[in-house]
Amino acid sequence: MEHPTAASPRRRLLITGASGFLGWHLARAAQATWRVEGTYHRHRPPLPGVTLHPIDLTDADAVAPWLQHLAPDAVIHTAALAQPNRCEQEPELSYAMNVEATRRLAKFCGDRQIPFVFTSTDQVFDGQAPPYSETSVPNPINRYGCHKVEAEALIQALHPGAVICRLPLLYGPGTPTADCFVQEFLRTLRAGQPLRLFTDEFRTPAYVEDVAAGLLLALENAVGLLHLGGPERLSRYDFGLRLVEMFGMAPEQVVPSQQADVTMAAQRPADVSSSSQRALKLGYRPRGVAAGLRATRSWPQSLPAGETLEPPW
Fold first, then answer.
1. Domains of the chain
2. N or C terminus: fewer CB in 10 A for the chain?
3. Catalytic residue among 144, 171, 207, 284, which?
4. pTM for the whole thing?
5. Catalytic-residue membership of 144
6. Are 188 and 309 in contact (CB under 8 A)?
């Protein structure tokens, strides 16, 4: 008899947010071992081999019967309102997406005891006592982090066997429906404009395909909290210098700045670098920034000439 959590092409994995940056890469990777179903809201992503469902996850009346009909064997929930400034400016939308939609999915999976993986964030920490491990106590300083902490608590209550993966700053090749910050940086640089980046905000950035592999690993092998950070602690400014070096641009275009120089709706923690030792022991293998940027640079261009990417929401 097949193990109840073993992946196979016959078993169906639901990935929410398949039109997003992480969700798209995850849906591609998951097809090796799962029959993949993906959700999107506005922008249908080109994902050959994935069955796509247009649905608003904040619509409780629509989501409940749809989930019952779909009857997935496992769920990875990547859909989120993940822009901290936008969460501050639209708190009701943030709560509906980041907390309420998560609660419904966790309850559905918990009631049926099917595997559930939730993508949380390093923004659950205040940035004052890095590096952060799974035993560190969350203390968010922005609404995005607060809502993710609330979602984590709901999951732990509704589905104790679920996995909560706290993710770092993700980077990698843009997708047909979502960019990451790297593409934004490159557009600025190619326009000949200065790229002003913080010297006092530190993260452990991770290459998106490595995190996708980590989520699939967590689905099969983990319970509870799991950090999927990258192997290097870098400031935004240092990352920018690595970027221009890899793409053959002038380092003088990267201009150091500090958080205090910019007025933002959401407060940003100074250093949320992660310790991912637990995930490494499970087999998580995030590559370094140089290797990740090299992979980003060599990624095949999938868009027709002149076609632009949609924003990642």
1. 12-178+205-231+274-287 (3.40.50.720)
2. N
3. 144
4. 0.92
5. yes
6. no
